[in-house]
Amino acid sequence: MLALKQATSVATAVRVSRLALPCRIVRCTLATLAEDPKSNFRIPLIDFSKFTEAKTVDEKRKTAQEIVDGFREVGFIYLDKHGIPGWQVENAFNKSAQFFSMPQETKDKLAWEDPRSNRGYVCVGRERVTQAHDATEIAALRAKAPDTKESMEIGRDWDPTWRNMWPQEPDARGFKQTMLDFFRARQLRPELESGDMLNLDESFFQDKIDGQWHNLRLLSYPPIRRSLLEKEGQARAGAHSDYGTLTLLFQDSVGGLEVQNPHTKEFQAAPPIPGTIVINAGDLLARWSNDVLRSTLHRVVAPPAKKVSDTETITPARQSIAFFCNPNFDAMISCLPNCGKEAKYDPVTTEQYIVRRLAETYA
Question: Which residue windows are coiled coil (predicted)?
Fold first, then answer.
């Protein structure tokens, strides 16, 4: 049975999600989250303190079941009372804002260079997230409707091959240490004792996640005229799924995140809920679980805008911080033995899948 320590970081929330990884899902005790998909679609809000403060195994399983249901039915959950100090999140947002306020030429010195590294600064318009795979098609989308965001990508700082691209301390005081602390606090830990729940050997995942090949992404969405975001195909970030196993998203209060209803295919708002983390399953988790768990399309669109003239409005700036959880780059992602008799996907390593997707989406 999953034996988790007291939750003091997002890492604990991620370990709980391992409960949901494959497919011997515990017996459902709740109605499906999208029982009436046209009117009852919702992302579940889960009080994680009911897990960390549970007195019995059954109490823990009840909360775990809510997480399982969320990833099965929607692909997204809100996690409340997760144990992350508010000051730590606020500090990360402040340092992120300071970074993006640096002169453009200073940021450009840290430019993202290689999909194998996935580190460095990405200027507005360079990335075009999409589900397309053809380079020509993606280039056309980028030219017609580029993503109106900039980002800073940070990986494990001890990597022997790829180094993070840090600004000089005088340019962004305290930035490096703040982000290193934020990254370390959210690493996946190697303890995985979920064999009983998953009907697998309890050490099955240990050598597949212990390398901590995760990415911390700081995101800044500059103010933009609303009319520009209403053009065909345009968005602050186009519709896409995430590439890894789990994404932990910290939002500010501006809003704009939309999640595709898996049943109606319509996009519906996922508004910020103060103090919560939005967690969604990614492509590799879906492949591992043979699509029992959903990697759901989502996008960032224009939030409510401020009127600047009789004919024009402007959207406010938006910030978010995403932590992308990835298996080891050499881990083979293939259908788990208890996730159906026929695999929907060919086996692929983490590196093969993620590097290919990154190479496709960056100019």
Answer: none
